[in-house]
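Proteins fold reproducibly. Look at a sample protein:
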Amino acid sequence: MHGGRRAPGAPRTGSRRWLRRACAVTALVATLAASGTIVAFGLSVPESARPGISTRTAPDRPPATDSLPAAGPATVSPDGRPADIEKARRAPRAAAPRRRYERVVWRDSQALGGPTAGALVRGTKLPAEGRNFFTWDTDRQRTPNAIWRRYATDRLIRVVLRVAADFARAHPQAPRLAIGDLSRPRGGDFGARYARRMPHGSHQNGLDVDIYYPRRDRRETVPSVVDDVDLRLSQDLVERFVRAGAQFIFVGPSTPLTGPPGIVQPTPRHDDHLHIRLPPG
């Protein structure tokens, strides 16, 4: 330099000092990166730039033992599933909430007259369905049956529900009983004006009920032909209603269902259901 002036082309003193510091910092960063120490200067060094460290594997130094999970049983099931998922799959499922059905509102019913010319006083309504039964609307060919077709004396309702419960206990794999028409709320005519598909000549005083034969395939619907009928279960139903005090049980003439003469009677148009009638009283 001449006279304190920087010679042309000479680097500035400040620049040389900055370059030396930058080199020192770079060397320090490289040293810390090589040793795996975290740099606290806010600088990040890509793993690919760290000497001796692969981008796919951990450093040679083992990890701290307090960061590892405690040793225990195998964490993978025999079929390759994670153990916690397999444990949850095998755990017993919580019981489904018990379904709540409509309760019967019992009334002190009275049957007047006879089954073909009678009336019903204070009829009791059968619910649309229950644990052991469902109802079937013959005209609409679906469940449930219309409300106004589900009235009877309280005595008949009790008999039907008791037989349905006993039948379900004896045959837990059987379908629920399919219950058809009983009587209208006040009884009376139940002919073609009210039942287009299957007009009733009786069902007028709350002592008659139609119950469809259980199906062989266990479906909860009504049988279409006799071949659909589970005859063993149907015969069991006949015998249960005989023991329950039925006055008459009308069965299909194309079925082999039998019972005490005078009580169990083959009757046309009953190949898909039983017709139970209780005695007056």
Q: What stands out?
A: Confidence is low (pLDDT under 50) at residues 37-72. Residues 26-55 form one domain.
